[in-house]
Amino acid sequence: MDKQKENKAIAKETPKKSHRKSRSKRYREAQKLISKDKFYPLAEAIKLTKKTSVSRFTGNLEAHLIVNQKGEFGEVKLPYSTGKQKRVTIADEKVISAIKAGKIDFDVLIASPKMMPKLLPLARILGPKGLMPNPKNGTLTKDPEKAMAKFVKAGLRLRTEKKAPVLHLVLGKLDQNNKELTANVRAVARALNVTNIKKLILVATMGPAIKVNLQSLQE
């Protein structure tokens, strides 16, 4: 990676919301609890993420990682729920009508080969969202029902951004116990291989970023 691309990747290591010019009083107070130059042990980082969350709702535990290279790292089965259920549907006339009307209430669209001619005119809508069925990821298949069952049970896909070796993941809800959140983070670290991780930052849906000591991922 050249210097320009590396700088762009590092710039994305924290959520975009961190670049806002003004911050609420609650956010500024939470930020005082964190040392910008410190890399916290995982267990402590998770506790701080909860403590510094400033949302009025139960936020997510987000993980932002910089790794050594761009690409896909497969899927990982997390030991505990992330609180986010993947919505999977099979293309039929009703679903197609809903898409044409601008209603997309699914995360994965599965189709049989005979339905593809009807979906092709919708490629401009589905394509940019990564929802167009295709045989490479198993969403275009002769047995949609079987594929649907597989996707519902599927793990978390580990894939970097297209232009930078950066991953943005939701690994749980902040009202989960620390043991569950810790186990989910470590499961992702093992799947990526800790030696391939250059930086890991934890952050609440609304809250300041917390740097994690990578050695603590293996403890």
What's the SSE blueprint?
Layout: H1 3-11, H2 25-31, H3 42-51, E1 60-67, E2 72-76, E3 88-90, H4 93-100, E4 108-110, H5 116-119, H6 123-126, H7 144-152, E5 156-159, E6 166-173, H8 178-192, E7 197-204, E8 210-211
Parallel strand pairs: 3-4
Antiparallel strand pairs: 1-6, 1-7, 2-5, 7-8
List descriptors.
single chain, 219 residues, Ribulose 1,5 Bisphosphate Carboxylase/Oxygenase, 2 domains, two-stranded antiparallel ribbon, 30% helix, elongated
Structural features, described:
The protein has 219 residues and is of the alpha+beta class. The chain folds into two domains: 3-83 and 156-218, Ribulose 1,5 Bisphosphate Carboxylase/Oxygenase (2-Layer Sandwich); 88-152, Rossmann fold. It has eight helices and eight strands. It has helices at residues 3-11, 25-31, 42-51, 93-100, 116-119, 123-126, 144-152, 178-192, and strands at 60-67, 72-76, 88-90, 108-110, 156-159, 166-173, 197-204, 210-211. The chain has a four-stranded antiparallel sheet. Helix 4 (93-100) links the parallel strand 3 and strand 4. The longest helix is centred in the C-terminal third of the chain and has 15 residues, at 178-192. The model is unreliable at 16-20 (pLDDT under 50).
β-sheet strand percentage = 15-25%
User: What is the topology, as strand order, of the major beta sheet?
Assistant: 6-1-7-8
Largest sheet: 4 strands, antiparallel
Strand tally: 8
Instruction: Determine the N-to-C terminus distance.
Output: 30 Å
The CATH class of the largest domain, by name, is Alpha Beta
Short description:
This protein has helices at residues 3-11, 25-31, 42-51, 93-100, 116-119, 123-126, 144-152, 178-192, and strands spanning 60-67, 72-76, 88-90, 108-110, 156-159, 166-173, 197-204, 210-211. It is an alpha+beta fold and 219 residues long.
